[in-house]
């Protein structure tokens, strides 16, 4: 885009040519300051993260109270699977099957928005119990299956894996399923220490196939597969970063800076006097694509986290956000290498990694307060403490479950 490749539909929406230079500076600053801030953070604590991470991978994963953890995980999984089945029942369809069978066609974009905003099910149950907790349970089951090699964990894992695949495609989105699958690579490496190239190639190929298959079933013309402005290439090279250009173009030339209004309603209710909540991606979509909003096929213009920081606090805020995010990301790695290597701790790291990676393309405010991270980690810790209580009071023996688990 900086070199003049400007025929993408996002670029054509830019109203001020100076936006190109300004955004290019922001992206360059991110590429430079993000790793520098991470290095400084490690040196402040006098930690050699490369050495510590290598040592961590070589450690054996410790497991305690595995039977109690399995019982608690199984009980919670049954609840999550019940509500997953209920969600699809109320939707009257399974979107992945619609894609496989070629149903939906040109209406998929509208259906995706309608499904995401559906009120057929309590949003807290849908967003937490179904969309968040079920995939986390599949990671947990996989971790214990790798470590213990016990059949019961593998059976539970494959059931949760199937449910999670359906969940990750519940609104026809293309990337969530690929990201969900790839997280197993991180999980495998942390437990086993490394991953064979063959397995890694298979997983990467599966992720690519998944995205291409969903493009195909969404009606994409594969004659344009190598067109850099359309399809997977256009999405990768232009669309995601194009929304960053539009953030810089929009504020403050057309609208005043949001001045913190993108923070969650919880934060705003504590520190402000009734401020309205506006995510910058939502505002940008309504400004640059009102016709799509009217047609019901528009979502939000999410982009690199500096976009939301800029929309709220200007250029100085965007620069400071880069340093802050670098500190957060490095702290997560420091947390991993300094904790005991157990399946539960590894899953906490997976949760932090996946949700923060999503936040880099979702918005800066998610690095300040992220309810998904809080609820997800609390959920895993609740499983851990419940299992400890079950062991302490010998509930497995009292319920005659000890022999059945052998």
TrEMBL record:
NCBIfam families: glyco_rpt_poly
Domain of life: Bacteria
Keyword Transmembrane helix among UniProt keywords: yes
Transmembrane segments: 24-47, 68-89, 124-146, 153-171, 177-193, 200-216, 318-337, 344-361, 367-387
Keywords: Membrane, Transmembrane, Transmembrane helix
Protein name as catalogued: Oligosaccharide repeat unit polymerase
KW Glycosyltransferase (keyword) present: no
Coiled-coil region: none
Organism: Clostridium cylindrosporum DSM 605
